[in-house]
């Protein structure tokens, strides 16, 4: 009896049952606070494994069906951060085969930026941005640490925040997302952002006639991968900076690092990229 009491005190009832009845050892219960729980944020070291089952949204190809599933902000645009936190998407940190540690999830250094008037004071949430990009994505090439103040003139000209906002993130006209003191406004028309029409480096002769310029939909990639999977390691953080050509891609560089027929559709499926532009497409600057 004394042995039984000691076992209960040291290990609990499950341990006693295992000892007395020769039962297999029970595994430790999984934590409910880790990245496995629905909607939690997985850090680079705990990135969602490539072999995980695809989410329902990843099986869709129809733009309207995808828009319907994604949460919206106050202007009707996609709230990509909410999409992660609500578990609608679980974008991977890295491309297949890339084990580089990326991102800095949980960095909650949210700051206030003084405007010319209290109404125009802005809030910059590092905590939201590091769920998509790494520090090196913005610093110091776009923003110096403790650098000059950000101006709306620069943002509207496609610099500073305008490198992404208005192109792949919510439009700069969505003022209330940053300037909380401003009144509401009319909903936007394109909640997913614009597709990029890739500029041709040089004329390709008959190929130009056979296929239109390639179209790159950021939104289609963002439901599967975070920005840091490609930027800035493979592609610069400025549209139009990288010159893309098919020959290097076939050797596994640029788009070819994923589009090999295994991780993503192969480069031989020309019409998947070389399609006629839609109304939401924009020429790459």
Task: Describe, in short, the structure shown.
By secondary structure, the chain is mainly alpha-helical.
Verbal overview:
The strands form two sheets. The chain has a three-stranded mixed sheet with strand order 4-3-5, with no helix packed on it. A two-stranded antiparallel sheet has the order 1-2. It has nine helices and five strands. It has 285 residues and is mainly alpha-helical. It is globular and about 55 Å long. The relative contact order is 0.12. The longest helix is centred in the first third of the chain and has 20 residues.
List keywords for this structure.
285 residues, 6% strand, two-stranded antiparallel ribbon, globular, mainly alpha, three-stranded mixed beta sheet, disordered N terminus
Poorly predicted residue ranges: 1-49
Proportion of helical residues: 10-25%
Q: Structural class of the secondary structure composition?
A: mainly alpha
Q: C-alpha Rg, in Å?
A: 24 Å
Q: How many strand segments?
A: 5
Distance between the termini: 81 Å
Q: What proportion strand? A: 5-15%
- Helix-strand pattern: HHHEEHHHEHEHHE
Summarize the main sheet.
3 strands, mixed
What is the arithmetic mean of pLDDT?
76
Biggest sheet strand line-up:
4-3-5
The global form is: globular
* Tally of individual helices: 9
SSE diagram, text form:
Blueprint: H1 2-21, H2 63-69, H3 80-85, E1 110-113, E2 122-125, H4 126-129, H5 135-138, H6 152-156, E3 195-197, H7 206-210, E4 215-216, H8 218-222, H9 246-250, E5 281-283
Parallel strand pairs: 3-5
Antiparallel strand pairs: 1-2, 3-4
